[in-house]
Design brief:
Radius of gyration: 25 Å
Largest sheet: 2 strands, antiparallel
Order of helices and strands: HHEE
Helix content: 40-55%
Number of helices: 2
Number of strands: 2
Oligomer: single chain
Strand content: 5-15%
Strand order of the largest sheet: 1-2
């Protein structure tokens, strides 16, 4: 048996695992925050795009779309490639028009105006 064998001791392995755990504990919550921010920004972009299409619909058709936006969602002139987007923040939440102001509502941080 050689006394000068080179290798990794158990304490070095434990130290490496501890350092990796600390780094993971710091980065995972930050990543989750980035993902949530991206979902809110996607929702805001959806609301802005749908509002632009609602105004275009009013200009072309002379009337506001239905409150549930079903007439725009099925019209290929407004959504030719995909259907009406849904909110990525709240699973299954749909955008709709507030009939008093003719604007699409969406998510704001801490507020859930969806049905």
């Amino acid at each position: 048996m050689k006394l000068n064998q080179k290798g990794v001791s158990i304490s070095e392995v434990v130290l490496i695992i501890l350092l990796i755990s600390i780094i993971a504990a710091i980065t995972v919550p930050r990543f989750k925050g980035i993902v949530n921010n991206a979902k809110y920004e996607t929702c805001r972009t959806n609301v802005a795009n749908i509002n632009a299409l609602v105004q275009l619909y009013y200009i072309k058709e002379g009337t506001w779309p239905l409150i549930d936006l079903s007439d725009i969602a099925t019209n290929i002139n407004y959504f030719p490639e995909t259907a009406l987007p849904s909110c990525p923040v709240t699973t299954g939440a749909a955008y709709y028009i507030d009939p008093t102001i003719h604007r699409v509502t969406g998510h704001l941080r801490g507020v859930s105006p969806h049905p």
